Amino acid sequence: xxxxxxxxxxxxxxxxxxxxxxxxxxxxxxxxxxxxxxxxxxxxxxxxxxxxxxxxxxxxxxxxxxxxxxxxxxxxxxxxxxxxxxxxxxxxxxxxxxxxxxxxxxxxxxxxxxxxxxxxxxxxxxxxxxxxxxxxxxxxxxxxxxxxxxxxxxxxxxxxxxxxxxxxxxxxxxxxxxxxxxxxxxxxxxxxxxxxxxxxxxxxxxxxxxxxxxxxxxxxxxxxxxxxxxxxxxxxxxxxxxxxxxxxxxxxxxxxxxxxxxxxxxxxxxxxxxxxxxxxxxxxxxxxxxxxxxxxxxxxxxxxxxxxxxxxxxxxxxxxxxxxxxxxxxxxxxxxxxxxxxxxxxxxxxxxxxxxxxxxxxxxxxxxxxxxxxxxxxxxxxxxxxxxxxxxxxxxxxxxxxxxxxxxxxxxxxxxxxxxxxxxxxxxxxxxxxxxxxxxxxxxxxxxxxxxxxx
Amino acid sequence: xxxxxxxxxxxxxxxxxxxxxxxxxxxxxxxxxxxxxxxxxxxxxxxxxxxxxxxxxxxxxxxxxxxxxxxxxxxxxxxxxxxxxxxxxxxxxxxxxxxxxxxxxxxxxxxxxxxxxxxxxxxxxxxxxxxxxxxxxxxxxxxxxxxxxxxxxxxxxxxxxxxxxxxxxxxxxxxxxxxxxxxxxxxxxxxxxxxxxxxxxxxxxxxxxxxxxxxxxxxxxxxxxxxxxxxxxxxxxxxxxxxxxxxxxxxxxxxxxxxxxxxxxxxxxxxxxxxxxxxxxxxxxxxxxxxxxxxxxxxxxxxxxxxxxxxxxxxxxxxxxxxxxxxxxxxxxxxxxx
Lengths: 455, 338
Description:
The complex is a heterodimer.
Chain A: H1 3-60, E1 65-74, H2 94-110, H3 113-124, H4 133-136, H5 144-154, E2 162-168, H6 171-178, H7 194-206, E3 209-213, H8 216-219, H9 233-264, H10 269-282, H11 286-300, H12 308-332, H13 336-344, H14 349-377, H15 381-385, H16 406-414, H17 419-454
Antiparallel strand pairs in A: 1-2, 1-3
Helix pairs in contact in A: 1-17, 3-5, 9-12, 9-14, 9-16, 10-12, 11-12, 12-14, 13-14, 14-17, 16-17
Chain B: H1 2-21, E1 28-31, H2 36-49, E2 57-61, H3 62-70, E3 81-84, H4 90-98, E4 104-119, E5 126-127, H5 129-136, E6 139-142, E7 145-148, H6 154-157, E8 168-171, H7 176-192, H8 201-209, E9 216-219, H9 223-232, E10 237-241, H10 242-247, E11 252-254, E12 256-257, H11 264-268, E13 275-283, H12 293-300, H13 303-306, H14 311-314, H15 322-337
Parallel strand pairs in B: 1-2, 1-3, 5-12, 8-9, 8-10
Antiparallel strand pairs in B: 3-13, 4-10, 4-11, 4-13, 6-7
């Protein structure tokens, strides 16, 4: 080795360093650019989520507060001209008593309950206040008469008494009090007449009209005749039944088929075909499942229209591929040494799968299930095709009764003609649905972390 | 865990089995979205008034969609009542009969007005059917000859109208409202517009019902979609039901037609030209099988519900004369005597 050779080597090294240095700026820039784009993408995505949440929350939160009316209601015997409620007489059969009671209840329903409400309102108004009965009755919600009647049916002794009753103010009153409708608009553009608006303002200062938390949003069913009393109870139960059906059907079938396909089925062209089909099924738009459900469950099996049972079955079909794919991925992730060890100790294949492999995959299967179910709960399109977008004013007692679901309720309220009132209600329903979803996802995360710690 | 799952599956299987045995005891209704608000109110009040019956379930899907469900056949998985904003067509009746639905009872219960409205901050519109036809038809007569529609703003159609680009949101063909719109507005305007002589009926029909797709938006959904369209393009004139306009007077301004402002009074008297009767159709085969159908019909047509001053009038329905209602009730009951 000579000095010359060394210097030549040094020179080459220096040149290489030079080249690297020259390219360094560009490489740094590429790296920074990529980081910048990454951050920009995340900021943009978060920004949209923030806009969505701010929009929904700002619109929806006012709907959780409701305008109430507290009136002294007199059960005036002159207006309520009715015989006392039938009592169970000796020797009378239960059926006869029930028939007599129903006939009495129907007579009670025919009484002029609006008159009772109107008188209560007039007593609360300043003396000599001029307002006609249609205008004054636009202040409370139209179901006020049913509320007062129900009190009377439950306790017929109220006849002749005066009791304080909490009523819900009408949607238009609520709009006026909250300012959802522009208060400066002229008479022709207002929903409420001028005297009604003046009386509402008077009631507000007198404390007859108060605001409170809208429990009705959770405890009431949907309503068209009394929009301010419309609630989510029916839709919530509908969604709950569908969720149960999806869990009971999709989880065992999905996990079972995944185990069979992954652990037992011979690898052949046929199982390959099945695998491709399952993957394709996961990508099928949900509306197609709705069409399938309408054709199979409603038209062929004659399941009742609008029933959570039919809805749950459709959603089960939709969720199955998700669960099968996730379970198979989880099973593939289990190290072969576990299987070989179990088999080596003399376990049968079934024992190996159920005692050793499956427990390890529980956290992933559970997460997949809850995410699949959450997705199904938020699904609207297939439900529209099996009649679940109907107006249902009762809480379904069984999965066979007609019901709606939370996302469908959002869709229905969105289309309601009282925009000023239902814009807030719609957003409130969205908040409830989102809270439900977030709870489900939180449960998934919690269970997974607990099970993983144990495993 | 395993037993719990098995029990769950067993319970569900039993439940499914019970579905076939158990008979439906809730009236099932579907159809026109114009009738939906009225029918839903009646359903609720019916449930509240008759403690022995369940509250009927009311679906939508448009008049055509309602008829196709109605005509699927007889049995508990088919609907009992179809709401409609136009009478049933002969073709639909044939489809019904072919599926075994023969006892179809028509019930007319009131009227609905169709109004043109713009955003509240826009100038007033005083429309006539001819204006609307000239604004949206693909071909219009100019100097006795049919030419491709040259108008871009309303004041070109008629100098009395505001200077505003032509844009009209009309109901899609799945809505019964569309038929009334074509019959009462565009076809009426078409005839008055001075079509050239010597056209055959088919040609006239084609001219009267072919619209310019660049200025006409067909709304397949409900009126909230039309309202959203007005908000996104403030120049749009929208077609609404009277009751929808009435509930949104703060953001909408109504146009007069032939100089008449639509209202309960002008529509009931027939002064306002664009109105139509509303119907529901009852499946006679289901009376007696599904409890409460007859009571529902009687309740719907009672004075306090669909009569003058009734709860539906407050919701925007235009009541029909009491004599007409009496005829309808008599016809319905005569049907049930057979």
